[in-house]
Amino acid sequence: MNSARDDFRLLQEFVKSARATLPEGVWNYVIGGADSETTLRRNRQGLDSLAFRPRVLRDVSEIDCSTAVLGVDVRLPVLLAPIGSLQDLHPGGGATAARAAGQFGVLHMQSSASAPGLEATARAGPGPKIFQLYVRGDEGWVSDHLQRAAASGYHALCITVDLALYSRRERDIAKRHLTTARRHTRREDEIFLARLSWSDIERIRREWTAPLILKGIATAEDAAIACELGVDAIYVSNHGGRQLDHGRATIDILPEVVETVAGRAEIMVDGGFNRGSDIAKAIARGASCVGVGRLLAFALAAAGQDGVVRMLEILETELRVCLGLLGVTRLEQLNESCLHAAAPVAPAHALSAFPLLEEGY
Length: 361
Description:
Layout: H1 2-7, H2 11-21, H3 24-31, H4 38-48, E1 50-52, E2 67-69, E3 72-74, E4 78-80, H5 86-89, H6 93-104, E5 107-111, H7 118-124, E6 129-133, H8 139-151, E7 156-160, H9 170-174, H10 187-195, H11 198-207, E8 212-217, H12 220-228, E9 233-236, H13 250-261, E10 266-269, H14 276-284, E11 289-292, H15 294-326, E12 339-341
Parallel strand pairs: 4-5, 4-11, 5-6, 6-7, 7-8, 8-9, 9-10, 10-11
Antiparallel strand pairs: 1-12, 2-3
């Protein structure tokens, strides 16, 4: 761990190392989005359109960044988001990410599309884990996965619901990176994704007795239905800008979802969150946990398990500094009064949270 601590002192250094390490096709897959990549850019633009309103003279000598997510105490309100191509970033894939999460003290969400699979990942390291499922089969197929996840000790189940159709990733198509780090799904499996409906969620809710999460909620209307069905967590996400083009920034979606949910479920969010200050904005808007996807990918590609742990350490430092300078000492003290609308100062893109990269650092 000493090597990663010495080698990586800024989050942008993971990006730079990953860029030098990853094959061109994998790199473009990680940083890309759907079609014009407008949704991807809006995720960052939304975060950049919020300024802080700091309070002073409030005794911030002791700051606590810890919280609880779905009943699990975590060191940081961060979730290692599910990535289906983790094995293309590091040979250990999801198992390496799970070990890093357990070592640091946050939750890891294992993608059903990521090696080494749900059982091997569950065995990989200490700490509660969440299993994320793409529904690519019939009721029996789903039940089998639920039983396997329960038998493997997963704390919660997450169903991704924004993949009814696969988007077009023009960055991959234009560069002819059509077989590297992409989804390998049979046409007959895609039909099950397209047919997925609220009745399926209702059935899964009856069958799965542990916490249930729906990932890909982007409106108050769907959040309301999810709450009526007894879902435990609403995961606000637009798939990192990789599905519907011209969608809204997830940070902008949060207020309507928070208002509608009204405490009936926990709220998770991802989409462009790359700094400790981004996490503070999400918590201030009512989220209980923030998923990091691309940042996980960069750290994993750069330095494996040690890299992910070091990335989380830096995020924690950034968040602690942000809280202290806002005049708060605990996450629950963050609210909308800490935020103010502001014009972004630079064009938004996948890496715009790290402006020093543009200067060669």
